[in-house]
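Box S2. Input/output pair 1.
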Amino acid sequence: MRYAIYFSPPRDHDLTVAAAQWLGRDAFSGLPIPATGLGALGAGAQAYYTAAPRRYGFHGTLKAPFRLAGHARESELLQALGDFCATMTPVVLAEMKIGLLGGFFALVPARENGRLNDLANRVVAGFDRFRAPLSDAELERRRPERLSRAELRNLYNWGYPYVFDAFRFHMTLTGHVEAHERDRVDIALRRHFGTLPEQGLSVDRLTLFVEREPGAPFEVHSVHQFGVQPARAIA
């Protein structure tokens, strides 16, 4: 089993609902949502371009997926999450936007937010004691030959290349989109999400996701609201 510490808006948030419809799966219930085609994007293309993010569910990564260290227990991780979140206050992202990052589309903050970066840094470092070292196979899946020196150092030290100075908060909406298809996918995304990204988000919780067996879809395990204890179990 692997765990991941993500941010996800509440399950009934308009953006969560729209994202589940776009991706074709609700990470809270674990249920698939059949692709129907959105605007200029047919059902087949929608399913194809959302295949990779569909497995992970709608989220923003703070602590990338990890196996528990041999000395750690799930109950200890849950307690630590509750204790951490009880001390935190919400980070308001006044506006989000649809952006293209290295060939895939994602929701990203419209403006840089230092408090969000600080939150991510604290989660990466503060929960690393629960993470088992990456196996050789896990390291290879990250394609280390394509990483910069700093990203490779992050991968070995923290289990994920894109942390600290390499971190950019994003909520993935597609896998890689070929250059000649990007305009069509971009139009479909903007029509589907409308003005929802512009309404912003409040990062006011951490959500623990789980992958129950290798290759299984990630599902919401528990939600830990800032300033609120105990955690509210979801699944």
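Box S3. Input/output pair 2.
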Amino acid sequence: MPKLYIIATPIGNLEDISARAVRILSEADLILCEDTRNTQKLLEHYAIKKPLLSYHQHSKIKKTEKIIELLKNGGNIALVSDAGTPGVSDPGNKLIEEALKFLPGLKIIPVPGACALAAAASVCDFSMDKFLFLGFPPVKNKRKKFFEEVLASQHPVIFYESTHRIIKSLEELAALEKESALGKKRRLAVCRELSKKFETIYRGSAGEIAVQLERGTAKGEFVVVVGPSAS
């Protein structure tokens, strides 16, 4: 029976990968990845030489059909994202859905590891027993609705944001807090460049952290954790 491995890869530091993940990558018949250049750097670091095939949210149905055909022929395939755990804000789940339509008995095996949202949750100074993950905020439309949902949650909310919109998002969140009748300002933990050289964790209100970023730097990848309404 063919196997589809869903493998977590480092979100920054290349040491953050399990021995099991390295072994399976070295044994797979094919590795699916968002960007072959990024995955190639990881493979070279661990002296792994395997064929790569790009698979991302814009991949056409013909590529999915090719992958399913390889699985039908008994191939063992590993799926990785550029960083972190596949299926979390990337198209990994879509491939699984399509593969199971044609191969109901396909073994799908998770190989856990680095995940930016879990890393951010682990360093919060408020309870993370329950939380809501919302992925990336909309780029244009429905942004206000998105942040209203964040502030309406009784539990902490985690979302990702890019270097280009992080300050804007924090300012929009702060503005909505002023308008709302949902209580005092929420406490945030904003994580920049997790596991990388310039890793920084900012703590405070949305408005306070926006000012810190404006005075310092907003370069990098961000994970925003908005604390619970009672915090």
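Caption for Box S3: The mean pLDDT is 93. The longest strand covers residues 3-7.
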